[in-house]
Amino acid sequence: MSKKTPAEELKEKLFYSPKHANYVCSADEIKKADKFCEEYIAFLNACRTEREAAAWTVGEAKKNGYKEFKAGGKYKAGDKVYYVIQDKSVILCTFGKKSVAKGVRIAAAHIDSPRLDLKPNPLYEDEELALFKTHYYGGIKKYQWPTVPLSLHGVIMKKGGEKVTVRIGDEEGDPVFVVTDLLPHLDRQQADRPMTKVIKGEELNILIGSRPFGNEPSDKAVKLSIMKILNEKYGIIESDFLSAELEAVPAFPAKDVGFDRSLIGSYGHDDRVCAYPALRADFAVKKPEYTTVTVLTDKEEVGSDGNTGLQSAYLEQFIADLGALEGVPGRDVLRNSECLSADVNAGFDPTFAQAFEKMNSAFLNKGIVLTKYTGAGGKGGTNDAGAEYVSEIREIFDAAKVVWQTGELGKVDEGGGGTVAKYIANLGVKVVDVGVPVLSMHAPYEIVAKTDVYMAFKGFKAFYDAK
Length: 467
Known about the structure:
The chain has helices at 6-14, 21-24, 27-46, 50-63, 188-191, 221-234, 269-284, 314-325, 330-335, 387-399, 421-425, 450-465, and strands spanning 67-68, 80-85, 89-94, 105-110, 115-126, 129-137, 150-157, 163-168, 178-179, 206-209, 244-250, 255-257, 263-266, 292-297, 338-342, 345-346, 368-371, 375-376, 404-406, 416-417, 430-435, 437-438, 446-449. It is α/β, with parallel strands linked by helices.
């Protein structure tokens, strides 16, 4: 190996140049990343919606010694509790050695993802085809959703209060559903539409059947046939859709991508790719110095509104309950607390390089991304983390040998986006965004790198272990 020149040595010392994880990690650590991601893939396939992710988290938490949190209970360092919000959001907490008056350490990710929701009155028949009307949820490119096999997930509340769980389309032997598209031979008018209207919201109708009830022609016989099947399978009548939450999501499973199996393709990486490492970090921590609070929240993709989103009071109230255990006002806990807003960033895509500013972009396989600010244009709608707090997180990651990088969400005037960071920051907490870079974000099939997923786990664990 040739000796480095003085200029090369000085560049290495003074320049910022994040490296591919394979160049800085041992072969053993790469194997650990691959093993971690096998378990992450299983999580993705089990948890297609926020309800399923919340239920899975509680089930695994119980296996790891967590008990349901009781306000006013007695807890000691190392005790682990969980708290569920409307079956859609979950808080995991491991009590630390220090008083909560010194603050807590929060990691907040979201477990909802863009999808197609069924309308309250969804079922109709047209020309002897049965279809569901939908209302898309979150920021999607509508043209990506036709011709994709879909599965149906959610709950139906029957009259009388019985809850029926629906999960169909993901298991071997299940039927799937689909939004149709116009064939290229007849799409001249459609092709003249602007990209945002190639497929319109009211055209995202899901095909669910075509066989009529009985042998004699009659009005709405296909719809009747579908309702008969649903009544036999779930015991519902059509009006029960009015009190249902049913979500259509891509039916294909999470899988390795690439000849080298270094990538993972799946629906729902945004933001379960941060939620899973964060919850695993909480599972792994034993008796931390500071109490850890891992928040897996709902509704981020539509602005964090509602009683399961982080614009509601549930996190502030939980922190107040923690403070009350020691006679400490919740505001005093919050003002001394720190948070990693665990959300994804856009991975640099060489095919669409024009949308990125390369010097300030995140790259696959270069570790988790520290995003000082999000927002749009002139930093509108963002938490802009202070230099002091960013420096603290740098020190924590470097000390734990976490592979990390920094990045923005594309060019300044190309768009932008937001996370839950600003809502937690509004409580007086120090917050910075940290997450995994993603290709094809918000598409039915997103791509992440395995080493980045593992480094997210290492980063959250280091944050929780910090003294």
